[in-house]
């Protein structure tokens, strides 16, 4: 039976062992905490672009990356979820709205279902609505 007085020492040894073994990375491997995506926000034609670096993890979506960088409002429509505002800049049908690209290509999926890869560059632009009629 384990002496209760030695329990703190045993826990300390286990924690040190786990930290030592879990922290090693083999040559050529990259720890996921060292991987990231870049997120740029452009709030309109006269505004400067704002840059954020978000740590990448498996399953990170364009929506989740955006939520790490700004206050985001969404609007559900049926089974879909659309970005309706970023910070205080709200979509205005036929006016200004948010569009995004991944690695320079226009998005082909809603942000909530668009999984990113480490190293991706996501740009959100607040610009004229070219999809809706006024």
TrEMBL record:
It holds the Pfam family DUF4430. Residues 59-126 form the Transcobalamin-like C-terminal domain. It comes from the Bacteria. This is Uncharacterized protein DUF4430. It comes from Natronoflexus pectinivorans. The lineage of its organism: Bacteria, Pseudomonadati, Bacteroidota, Bacteroidia, Marinilabiliales.
